[in-house]
Design goal:
The structure holds 2 protein chains of 2 kinds. By secondary structure, chain A is an alpha/beta fold. Chain A is built from 8 helices and 12 strands. By secondary structure, chain B is α+β, with helices and mostly antiparallel strands. Chain B is built from 9 helices and 14 strands. The chains are: A alpha/beta, B alpha+beta. At the A-B interface, helix 4 and helix 8 of A face helix 6, helix 7 and helix 8 of B.
């Protein structure tokens, strides 16, 4: 994946570049708003990672202008401002996701990959498959190896989100944001308990585990 | 002179001067207008009288010819306060009447005299010469010629309109003087009294700016605009000092409670570097440091959020929300975690409760409280349970989280919402000590408060939303 990182802090930018290339992506760095905008306009990238506070030009105006010219490459906003209304203004400006500094790199990586996938898959499938597990979004039915599994509504949404992002790491905050629609930090391990309940339902009585814990990052559903 | 300049710099003096000029111009205009209007009316009246006289004389001439006319003129001229009458031959020699002499050239033009002329009556010329001062009389007149070239003049003295104009002028002067005095009085009252109060206010604010932040502006108790201004400014000062105090607390807290974990972080890194460790040792130290940093970030975020809440959020952050949905969300979110710890988490809800608020903030506050309740009820003597109830009374919405844990003694109940306060008994539980402070800040932001009560056994924490937040 080709990523444009618009970030003025040299150390943070270099760290991101190295870490992204270790994860198998290539990253270009822009150190201020103006050059970031012109690189985004001329180059072809799969994703933009934009710091909100930049010299010369702030990150939100870059995204807003790119959106104005019809450029809909996914953009992830990085910001030290993490309050409720900051997030809202960030997403309203055309950002696709919002991550508050300081962040864990695993969180950033997980979100970038999800954004990329979302941009690629324009159509949403009605039935998801992971191994022998299948989820029908219309009839709300979940089966594994043909055997029906009964889920609570929230468990269904949790599994639906995990299946839509099968093969990708999803973090606890991503789950809280997308399944519960809250953006705070739930302090204790509430999400883990939900996952282990879900795991119990979809893995009990089957040999092959599907829902994997990714240490230090989150979870991944894969065959 | 310098004092005068200083006085002129006050608003009251300027306003008084402005009004004085404005009213003086108006008064002058009014007097001039009235004078000219009255003078014109008097002139019309004079002409009417003279026309009437002329018609009378004409009738007399028709009836008895020149001798009768002369007789009539003689008799009229002798009456006290009579008009001017004059009969002259074609050369302008005076034949009869009560006029001894008049401005030359008047008799040459037939018709109304164009402007007032001077004249003197019989016997007056000498007295005037003797007095030497009295100005000549002025008059206006109608001149006409009889068929035999005899000139007749009928006129009226203009002494009356003149006198009127003088009265008016005097009135104008008196008015202007009174207005000047009035302006001085207004300046004295407005300037000296009202502006002295403004001076007191600015003196007080100077002292506040100089650093005496406990000082407040004077309020006289009159309840007027100045008092309202002072009261509002005082409220503003209260708010500023509250914010200031909050900021000071934040920096104190950062100093106390963030330095400790930072020190641990540093020590651990140092220890890892100092010893000759195996790879796994480094790894463990790094992992623990990451965990510690995450906790630090969490604490830091909570502190920032509390400060932001106390400083006030934008109105944009508020919308119409249903508390019932938030309760359902949070209970649903925490239920598995509670079950895992052997705690029964139940929600008892009555009816919808819509209010103006921020879903995220209330959700976070409620989960902090629920999180606490689950933690503490876990070591209850009976079967641990946590209940969330939502009641709507006439004036408020009460969202209560009750547990049957050990509870909090009454004397400590207010203290638990202070930042970083963790009661001794809870030191063993994980947490930053900011959960309830954040909940309290969220409630303050919504115009409500947190109430603590005994659940016997256990603690009941109530989020009280005021009627003003209701939709």
């Amino acid at each position: 994946m080709k990523i444009l990182v618009i970030e003025d802090d040299r150390e943070a930018a270099d760290y991101l570049k190295n870490a992204l290339s270790e994860a198998g992506h290539t990253a270009d760095i822009a150190r201020d708003g103006d050059s970031g905008f012109s690189m985004a306009e001329t180059g072809s990238y799969d994703i933009y990672v934009v710091d909100r506070m930049l010299p010369r030009r702030d990150g939100l105006s870059i995204i807003a202008e790119l959106r104005g010219t019809g450029n809909d490459t996914p953009a992830l906003i990085l910001s030290a401002l993490g309050e409720v209304d900051d997030r809202v203004t960030g997403l309203r400006a055309g950002g696709d996701d919002y991550l508050t500094k300081p962040y864990a790199f695993s969180e950033l990586l997980a979100r970038i990959e999800v954004l990329k996938r979302r941009a690629g898959a324009k159509e949403i499938e009605t039935v998801y498959h992971v191994g022998d597990l299948e989820l029908d979004r219309l009839s709300h039915a979940v089966r594994r190896a043909g055997q029906e599994i009964i889920l609570q509504p929230r468990e269904f949404r949790l599994l639906e989100y995990m299946m839509r992002h099968a093969g990708q790491v999803v973090t606890r905050t991503m789950l809280l944001e997308n399944v519960w629609d809250y953006h705070f930090d739930p302090q204790t391990n509430v999400i883990d308990v939900h996952i282990s309940r879900l795991r119990g339902k979809i893995e009990k009585g089957f040999d092959k585990p599907l829902l994997h814990t990714v240490r230090g990052a989150g979870y991944m559903l894969k065959d | 002179m310098a004092r005068l300049v200083a006085i002129m710099k006050t608003t009251a003096a300027r306003l008084s001067a402005l009004y004085l000029i404005l009213f003086a111009v108006c008064a002058t205009f009014l007097v001039i207008y009235m004078t000219s209007l009255s003078a014109r009316m008097l002139a019309v009246q004079t002409r009417d009288t003279i026309n009437e006289e002329v018609r009378g004389l004409d009738r007399a001439y028709q009836r008895g010819g020149l001798p009768f006319l002369v007789r009539v003129i003689e008799s009229r001229a002798r009456q006290p306060g009579a008009n001017l009458y004059l009969l002259a031959d074609a050369n302008g020699r005076i034949l009869s009447g009560n006029v001894e002499s008049l401005q030359p050239g008047i008799l040459d033009v037939v018709g109304w005299t164009e402007r007032p002329f001077t004249y003197s009556r019989f016997g007056e010329a000498e007295t005037r010469l003797a007095a030497g001062r009295e100005p000549p009389h002025e008059a206006m007149a109608l001149v006409f010629r009889l068929p035999n070239q005899i000139i007749v003049l009928v006129g009226r003295d203009l002494g009356e309109p003149e006198q009127f104009r003088r009265v008016m002028q005097r009135a104008l002067v008196v008015t202007l003087v009174i207005m000047c005095l009035g302006a001085l009085l207004i300046w004295y009252f407005v300037g000296r009294r009202a502006l002295k109060r403004i001076d007191r206010v600015s003196a007080a604010s100077r002292r506040i700016m100089a650093g005496d932040l406990t000082r407040r502006l004077p309020v006289s108790g009159a309840g007027d605009e100045f008092d309202r201004l002072s009261e509002n400014l005082n409220k503003m000062l209260d708010r500023i000092s509250a914010l200031n105090e909050g900021l000071r607390q934040v920096s104190d807290n950062i100093a106390h409670d963030l330095k400790t974990p930072l020190t641990r972080l540093r020590n651990r890194a140092e220890a890892a570097l100092a010893g000759n460790q195996k790879a796994s040792g480094y790894r463990e130290a790094l992992e623990r440091n990451i965990a510690e940093s995450d906790q630090l970030i969490r604490t830091f975020n909570a502190i920032l959020m509390i400060s932001r809440l106390e400083a006030g959020y934008s109105a944009e952050a508020v919308s119409t929300i249903d508390l019932r949905a938030i309760v359902a969300d949070v209970v649903e979110l925490y239920e598995p975690a509670a079950e895992e710890q052997g705690v029964k988490l139940e929600a008892g809800i009555v009816g919808p409760a819509e209010l103006r608020g921020n879903r995220e903030l209330i959700g976070q506050a409620l989960s902090n409280i629920v999180d606490n309740a689950i933690k503490y009820s876990a070591d209850a003597n009976q079967a641990p349970r946590v209940g969330v109830t939502l009641e709507k009374t006439s004036g408020e919405i009460r969202l209560t989280v009750s547990d049957n844990g050990p509870g909090v003694p009454p004397e400590d109940r207010q203290r638990v919402t202070e930042r970083f306060v963790r009661l001794e008994e809870s030191r063993t539980q994980p947490g930053s000590g900011l959960g309830l402070s954040l909940a309290k800040a969220v409630m303050t932001f919504h115009g409500g408060h947190l109430a603590f009560a005994d659940n016997d056994p256990g603690l009941a924490v109530t989020m009280v939303f005021p009627a003003s937040a209701l939709v």
